[in-house]
Amino acid sequence: MRFFIDTADLDQIQEAKDLGVLDGVTTNPSLMAKAGITGAKNIEDHYVKIASMVEGDVSAEVIATDVQGIISEGEYLASLAPNIVVKVPMIKDGIKAICHFSEKGIKTNCTLVFSAGQAILAAKAGATYISPFLGRIDDISWDGIGLIQQIAEIYAVQMYDTEILAASIRSSKHIVQAAQSGADIATCPLHTILGLLKHPLTDIGLEKFLADYQKGNG
Ligand code: E4P
Q1: 123 sits in which H/E element
Q2: Which of 7, 90, 133 has most ligand 1 atoms within 8 Å of CB, for mutation?
Q3: For residues 46 and 29, is the Cβ–Cβ distance under 8 A?
Q4: Across the strands, what pairs with 4?
Q5: Does ligand 1 come within 6 angstroms of the Cβ of 28?
Q6: Share of residues in the chain with pLDDT > 90 (%)
Q7: Whose CA is nearest to atom 6 of ligand 1?
């Protein structure tokens, strides 16, 4: 499973990159606002900066919700850098636009996916990635990981090429469960990636190894 970081914060992207495990970046309008990036030109410039920091795909989300608007905004975003992927909402006009992008060879990430039916439609339209929001599903006491498993099974049976990008990850445990459930990618907040490092027995074990070394060599 590949790791994307789910942020527009350049320091956090750099930290994940320095760890050596970063395969790409996802953003959305809320994450841009959280990073303090506002105004169309600043947002565009920020996408270019992020895209220059990583070799992998960077999802840039359209604001338009009509097919022509999504197509023109998406084509523009895709022209900003070769690794920009157009992030399109799971709506009727979004599906039409994904068909268009797919025919033109422009990569897409179909976002706001909450059901297997939506995942099938996005795959049929030729989406490169779909983003099921597992945290938001858990928030309303449904089963986010169960949805990832269901989509993974359908995609395997139907031999769809679309990749499952587990999104709305809230914890390190979500990352482990997404990997176990057949997600191709998890897009994660930095703290959930760093949380994977933690185990008290690792800390206790290292402390003992170092203390024993000191006893013999100190
Ligand atoms: C990323 O592609 C999604 O937009 C993001 O993971 C949503 O996360 P949230 O539910 O924590 O806002």
Answers
A1: helix 116-125
A2: 133
A3: no
A4: 24, 187
A5: yes
A6: 100
A7: 168
CA dist 97 and 75 (Å) reads 10
The set of residues, in sequence order, having a beta carbon less than 8 Å from that of 3 and lying 6+ positions away, is 16, 21, 22, 23, 185, 186, 188, 193
Q: How confident is the model at residue 176 (pLDDT cuts 50, 70, 90)?
A: very high
Give me ligand 1 centre to Cα 119, in Å.
Answer: 16
Q: Is the confidence at residue 105, as pLDDT, over 90?
A: yes
CA torsion 48→52→53→54, rounded to 10°?
Answer: 110
- Exposure string of 34-56, with b = 16+ CB inside 10 Å and e = fewer, is ebebeeeeebeebbeebbeebee
pLDDT at 218 (0 to 100)? 79
Average pLDDT over every residue of 147-167: 98
Cross-strand bridge partners of residue 59: 26, 85
pLDDT over threshold 90, residue 212: yes
- Rounded-to-5 percentages of helix, strand, coil across the chain: 55, 15, 25
Respond yes or no: is residue 87 known to be catalytic: yes
Q: What is the pLDDT of residues 37-57, one digit of tens each?
A: 999 999 999 999 999 999 999
- If one counts every other C-beta atom within 10 angstroms of the C-beta of residue 197, the result is 9
Structure tokens at 190: 């930095």
pLDDT of residue 110: 99
- What angle do helix axes 144-158 and 172-180 make, rounded to 10 degrees? 30
Q: Is 167 in the pocket of ligand 1 (CB under 6 A)?
A: yes
